[in-house]
Specification:
The chain has 232 residues and is of the alpha/beta class. It has 8 helices and 11 strands. Helix content is 39%, strand content 20%.
Length: 232
């Protein structure tokens, strides 16, 4: 099932789009500001976004730019008549398509299906494989195994989940709070030390020199990431 984020400050529009999309068995997330949309994209696997341009707190164009810093999932802009300049700007900064309000439900569904098909099946993106590889690290999520340069590595369940999170998002920085929320799936009160211990254990098992890690890097004041390709 595909996850679609609907972001518009008009709740009636969000409700209507949710009805249309749910009728086609899409799972929907709702946001009413650009800031809310960014938070949902960070914390969930989203396959497509329907994004309004004119919103409070953070407009759709600004949100679009920030979204493109971390993901290339399809974004369809929701625009009003007379927003031609913003429409062109949105396309220039990474939007894939636009729909003008008031919209036809049939057109909305057709545009959504078209963008998902392009993204997932025609080269714009790929359906997740059970196997992830970064440098010499390979994680097979179907078999629940990890190897380093072809040698099996024994990880605890939490170590495995942290590594999987990193490998699914190479180069992306996760704060200790983010890591704890996603892996332990509970509020992260005082979680920094717990996460740090697990990162240290992962380094001991995956790095030739844990003190000078090739893969698992700290970004001071922000959190942790796995380096793309394991560059030193």
């Amino acid at each position: 099932m595909y996850n679609i984020l609907i972001c518009d400050d008009e709740k009636d529009i969000v409700s209507a789009l949710k009805i249309y999309l749910s009728s086609e068995n899409y799972n929907t997330y709702e946001a009413y500001t650009g800031k809310e949309a960014l938070q949902i994209v960070r914390n969930n696997e989203i396959h497509l976004i329907l994004l309004d341009i004119m919103m409070p707190e953070m407009d759709g164009i600004t949100a679009m730019v920030k979204i493109r810093e971390t993901t290339n999932i399809p974004v369809i802009l929701l625009t009003a008549k007379g927003e031609d300049t913003d429409k062109v700007l949105g396309l220039n900064v990474g939007a894939d398509d636009y729909i003008t309000k008031p919209f036809n439900p049939v057109e909305v569904l057709a545009r959504v299906k078209s963008q998902l098909r392009r993204y997932l099946h025609l080269g714009g993106g790929s359906i997740k494989s059970s196997s992830l590889r970064i440098g010499g690290i390979e994680l097979d999520d179907k078999a629940k195994t990890v190897t380093l340069d072809g040698e099996a590595v024994s990880l605890t369940p939490k170590e495995y989940d942290i590594l999987k999170l990193f490998m699914e998002n190479p180069g992306r920085v996760f704060s200790p709070k983010d890591i704890y929320n996603r892996v332990w799936k509970e509020p992260s009160y005082g979680s920094e030390s717990t996460v740090a211990v697990h990162i240290r254990h992962l380094r001991e098992k995956l790095e030739l020199d844990p003190a000078e890690p090739r893969y698992l890097k700290v970004v001071w004041g922000q959190g942790y990431k796995i380096e793309r390709g394991g560059e030193s």
